[in-house]
Amino acid sequence: MTLLDRTDRTIVALMQENARRSNKELAAAVGIAPSTCSERVRRLEDAGVLRGYTADVDPASLGIGMRAILAIRLRRHNASEVDTFREHVLSMREVVQVSHVTGGNDFLVQVVVRDAAHLRDLAVSGFTSLPEVAHIETSLVFDHVAKRAVPDLTD
Predict the structure, then answer these.
(1) Under-50 pLDDT residues of the chain
(2) Of 3, 59, 117, 150, which has the most beta carbons under 10 Å away?
(3) How far apart are CA 118 and CA 88, in angstroms?
(4) CATH number for region 59-141
(5) In which residue ranges of the chain is CATH 3.30.70.920 found?
(6) pLDDT for 38-69, tens place per residue?
(7) Residue 30 vs residues 5, 8, 27, 38: alpha-carbon distances, Å
(8) For the chain, where do the domains classified as CATH 1.10.10.10 start and end?
């Protein structure tokens, strides 16, 4: 685990607000020299604290009309089947989030699809046809709001 000082935590918080701000703007907001800021950002990237930068895209503009969460129970919960299932699911273009969970189900898989027919086809061909899958339960998502920032719980 990388230990972050107050300056690093401030940089991370500001980058989560707007990763497109210039190094000069970021340095001024933190109160350090641009060269120091650039070096700190590079170290945060190298350490895996800053793992990438993304764009927030309107799903409808990409043909996405529906979001669903699939609760999946595997036939056997052993490392080999868990890994095989996770790899398969992560390779599917409709899958946007995978959580390996405790409880009655083994995985919660969030998918995006064009419509109900696409969701049905995905559930049948992409999940229930897999030998490791024992049960699938699908829930439609009426509204989806994601907080983008990861909270700092170190203090």
Answers:
(1) none
(2) 59
(3) 18
(4) 3.30.70.920
(5) 59-141
(6) 999 999 999 999 999 988 889 999 999 999 99
(7) 12, 9, 5, 12
(8) 6-46
- Please tell me the distance from the alpha carbon of residue 67 to that of residue 146, in angstroms, as a whole number: 13
Residue 75 carries which DSSP code? Answer: S
**How far apart (Å, rounded) are the C-alpha atoms in residues 99 and 108?**
5
Give residue 3's pLDDT. Answer: 86
Strand partners, 136: 72
Q: 24 Cβ partners below 8 Å, 6+ apart?
A: 34
C-alpha of 14 from chain center: 19
The reported pLDDT for the residue numbered 154 is 80
The reported pLDDT for the residue numbered 1 is 60
**Residue 104: CB partners within 8 Å, gap ≥ 6?**
71, 73
- DSSP state, 82? H
Alpha-carbon distance of 148 to 113, in angstroms, equals 22
**Residues shown for the chain:** 155
What DSSP string describes 70-134?
Answer: EEEEESS--HHHHHHHHHHHHT-TTEEEEEE--SS-SEEEEEEESSHHHHHHIIIIIIITSTTEE
